[in-house]
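To whoever picks this up:

The parser on our side crashed when reading a file containing two proteins. I've narrowed it down to the boundary between the first structure block and the second sequence. Both blocks are reproduced below exactly, byte for byte. First block:
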Amino acid sequence: MRADRLVATLLLMQQRGRVTAAEVAHELEVSVATARRDLEALSTAGVPVYPQPGRGGGWSLVGGARTDLTGLTASEAQALFLLVGPTSGRSATETSALRKLVRALPETFRADAEAAGRAVVVDPAGWGATVRTRPPWVDELQDAVVRRRQVTITYDGRSRGVSERTVDPWGLVDKDDVWYLVAGTPSGRRTFRVDRVRALTVLGTTAARPDDLDVAAVWDEVVDEIERRRGRVAATVAVAGPLVRVLRDRLGRHASVLRDADDGRVLVRVSSHTARSVAEQLAGFGAAVEVVEPPEVRAELAALGAELVGRYATG
């Protein structure tokens, strides 16, 4: 319910002129740490919210107290909507709060603000490989999505090599700190990892975008498609309880808890596109992970072990 909280924080600041994190926490019935994070997020996103240190300090909205949000500039309104934009599970309360915020904005800002609210999808479930550094192109791509501008990207497709292509940016996805661009191309919808973009040029030409586009729904389709390709082989493994979280952090959606085993360990389902790939993902855990089934994965682990012994054994 972060969207309605952020809007309520802004309205509270406009009413009082200056607030402390403790006052926001009391009014909105959240922790002081949560209130402080919300205030810092608003400020970082470009909304004109600034801290004033010292005795009698707090947080204030530049321009003083106002009765509505019409004092926001176009870029500030976009920044706010990017911050509280769609996640895969936005509640009805959040949706209602954003609609109220749209009505409070100057009419000339509304279309871009709504576009910003649809520009980014947050998917917290990882796929195992997490990039913690924000790619340099995210802000420019967000702007291109909001303004409906085509972009030319130089993209490293790994096995397919580096290529240059012009695409219609539809939306961005933050998947556990790994950013993806969902875009239209002459060959249909495509998904690009933003950290593999080597160069970016925003063009003056208008990007084509389906009128009924729902980026969150499109992303669900992308995830389902990738999961089908990556999860063709599944293994059941037995691990000690503390290792379950490590497996899930490392493998993302490809590690799911099945049930407790009779010996006090936990049974976990691990999947990938081949038996060899499953074995490679588990080999680093050594004897801490026991593959219960299938035999194909056990055989691949044995083969990997034999290869390592053959390479590194010392007489």
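<<boundary where parser fails>>
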Amino acid sequence: MGVGFALVGKGPEVFKNPPIPNNPKLALKITRLIKEEQGTEQFVFYCKGKSATCLIMLTAIDRKEQVIQFTWRLLKKN
């Protein structure tokens, strides 16, 4: 399945109970997904790395300063 990010929804409830598809379509860069979705706070992303999967919820975005703040939680460590 590879590594990357997939948008799974928006808000704290999605962060607690994410609707992760069996085979999520992954993008290599989260910044591209944010631009495509007109990124706002509270977007929740599924993140698959080589050794773990996690969720990331954006908590603040400052486009001028190019800063993204987020909270995350580990789903599974391989």
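After patching the parser it read the second block fine. The first helix runs from residue 12 to 16. The chain has two helices and four strands.
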